[in-house]
Design brief:
By secondary structure, this protein is mainly alpha-helical. It has one domain. The protein is 74% helix and 0% strand. The radius of gyration is 18 Å and the shape is elongated.
Length: 163
Amino acid sequence: MAIRLSKILLVGSIGLLALVIVLNNLTDYDANFRYIYHVLTMDTVFPDNQLTWRAIQDPQLQRIIYGLIIATEAAIAGLCLAGAVRLGQVMGDSGTAFNQAKATAIYGLTLAFLFWFVGFMVIGGEWFAMWQSADWNGQQPAFRFIGCVGIVLLYLAMADQDT
C-alpha cells in the first residue's frame, strides 16, 4: 500500500506544481509574458545570430502562444490531479485494477514531459535560441521539471502487484 500511496502523492504533486504555475501565469500575467516575449522576439540572443529570421514579432501571435502555454499547463494540472484522485479511488483494489486506473495520470505526466521537453528545450531552447540569452534562458528550470516528471512517470508505469 505504501508504494501505491507514494505514486498517488507524486502524481498529485506534479499536478499541484502545474496548477501553481497556471495561477502564477494568470495572476502575474505581464511579468511572465515578458519571458515569452523575449524568447519569441529573440531580442537577447547573440548579436550576430543568423537564426533571428525565426523570431515572432506579432504581439497578437505572442499572446496566442502564451495562452496555449497556459492552457497546456492547465491540462497537465487537470490530468495529473484527476489521475491522482482516480488512483486514490482504487488504491485498495487489485493490482490489475490499480494498473488500469493509471491512464489519466500517465496522459498528464506524458503531456508534462512533452511540454517541458519539446516546448522549452526544443522549441524555446533550440528553435528560438533561448540558450543564448543571459536573462531569459529557461532551459535549466525546464530540465528540472523534465527530470522530476520523467522519474514520476517511470515510477508510476511500474506494474503494481496484488498486495
